[in-house]
Design a protein that fits this description.
The chain has 477 residues and is an alpha+beta fold. 43% of the residues lie in helices and 22% in strands. The protein contains 11 helices and 15 strands. Helix 2 runs antiparallel to helix 5 and helix 6 packs across helix 8.
């Protein structure tokens, strides 16, 4: 008899385990189906419904409820036995069953609650206006380790419907239900993360588009700061090339007429890259124009200085070129905390004589070339502009003869990178000047052609700017 009893227990256990595995399989199949066909926020709800249906089917229950709990044991989701309660009714029902009823007992004790007869068990609470009769009840905790994920409560109108074998079956099945619900919860969290990423991606794309639009406006505004038209002077050929590495640039060039038929021209490179350098580029350019006397602003006076040039225009040229020192002082005193500065060459040319006065504030040397090659260099006459106030900038003079070309550039030319990360270099640049073409435009084109052959498709990190001024020969004058 004992052998038969043990055999029956083993058979019952195998049946229970088989039923539990079938529950797991069905829940998994339904979970996959829901995940593929439902919106993300409905997956958990539909899986709860299917879980309750399968539990009721296993135990032949009439009705049931299922609650999901958070780490603190509070209800976060669930299905009530009563259909379509109002939010107030739902809150009141949940509060009462967890405070006084069977579900609360199961949450506190973390074990199966079996009520054979609701009238004889004080764990059962009859709810107000309950539209159905309950004779017996079975509540099962869904556990993951020591944590309780939820509670399934099954109801039947007859007393004694639920027995210990049903309780044991549901105890085994609850572990499978717990695994399925945990997977569904993780899936919902994962998909919420995906949705958050998609929203963030959309926000980033919108921001990027808006930023591109603003950068395009900035690029146009900056372009407007550069001269639209270079002054045309009989007997002189002036060529410019400007190629920003980004949408906005720190390089700038300028050319403008001054009093007494003089020509002022600038080539400069503001430190750093991007929007900050572009803003300071506009400031440097404006200050040079104001302090040189090209642009008159109310309340701005430009003090003069004396020069040593024997030319009768020496005092005036010194006054104009003092714009570099005034710009330096303004930037250093008003914007010193930003640490912005520029290398800057400012020249004032007398087209009638070819006489050139200049200040070179830490900029690359400008070269004078002719058909014989490099004739001379205009090296720095003072430090970079904007670092420290009260700096000295020496004014120097040179004579451009007929056929001479003055060529200036920013370091974006010599530091241009090839795909193999090799610099274009000063040696290669000077080699191009030794075989100088006859005009400023031709010289710029020759340098461009060789430079971009070197660059190929390599990304560039610095702006490229060049200016060339050619005094044509006497026969062309």
């Amino acid at each position: 008899m004992e052998d038969q009893h043990e055999l029956k227990q083993k058979i019952d256990q195998l049946r229970s385990e088989k039923a539990a595995l079938q529950v797991q399989s069905r829940l998994l199949e339904n979970f996959v189906t829901f995940a593929r066909s439902s919106s993300h926020d409905r997956v958990m709800t539909r899986l709860l419904q299917k879980t309750l249906e399968i539990s009721a089917e296993l135990t032949a229950a009439d009705k049931g409820s299922l609650f999901l709990l958070d780490d603190d044991g509070a209800v976060v989701d669930g299905i009530l036995t009563r259909v379509d309660p109002t939010p107030e009714q739902r809150s009141r029902i949940i509060g009462q069953v967890f405070e006084e009823g069977l579900a609360g007992w199961v949450r506190r004790h973390r074990k199966v609650g079996l009520i054979v007869d609701t009238k004889a068990d004080d764990r059962w609470v009859d709810l107000p206006n309950q539209p159905y009769t309950v004779g017996s009840a079975l509540a099962v905790p869904i556990l993951k380790g020591h944590d309780i994920l939820g509670i399934v409560t099954l109801l039947h109108e007859d007393p004694g419907h639920f027995k210990q074998d049903a309780a044991d079956l549901m105890q085994i099945t609850a572990n499978q239900i717990g695994a399925a619900l945990e997977n569904a919860r993780l899936y919902s969290k994962l998909n919420e993360s995906y949705r958050s990423l998609e929203r963030a991606k959309a926000d980033i794309e919108a921001y990027s588009k808006a930023l591109d639009n603003e950068m395009a406006k900035g690029k146009k505004i900056q372009r407007d700061f550069l001269p639209r038209h270079i002054p045309q002077i009989p007997g002189w050929d002036i060529a410019i090339y400007f190629h920003p590495a980004r949408q906005v640039s720190g390089d700038f060039y300028d050319a403008f007429r001054l009093q007494e038929n003089l020509l002022g021209f600038v080539i400069a490179d503001v430190c750093d890259k991007g929007v900050g350098s572009a803003l300071f580029m506009a400031l440097f350019r404006s200050l040079i124009r104001v302090f040189s006397g090209h642009t008159n602003l109310q309340g701005v006076s430009v003090p003069g200085s004396t020069g040593s040039d024997p030319d009768s225009r020496g005092d005036f040229l010194s006054e104009v070129l003092n714009a570099v020192a005034l710009t330096n002082d303004y930037i250093a005193e008003e914007h010193g905390e930003e640490g912005m500065f520029a290398t800057l060459f400012f020249g004032v040319l007398d087209p009638a004589t070819g006489r050139l006065a200049y200040v070179n504030g830490g900029h690359e040397p400008l070269f004078i070339v002719n058909s014989s090659g490099i004739k001379g260099q205009l090296k720095a006459t003072g430090p970079v502009v904007g670092i420290m106030s009260a700096m000295k900038y020496e004014i120097r003079w040179i004579q451009l003869a007929p056929g001479d070309i003055l060529i200036g550039y920013t370091d974006g030319v010599t530091e241009a990178m090839s795909p193999q990360e090799n610099l274009f270099g000063k040696k290669r640049f000077k080699a191009l000047l030794k075989n100088s073409p006859p005009t400023a435009s031709d010289l710029i084109e020759q340098i461009k052609r060789d430079l971009f052959e070197h660059i190929d498709n390599a990304p560039q990190f610095d702006d490229i700017t060049m200016i060339a001024i050619h005094r044509e020969s006497e026969r062309k004058a």
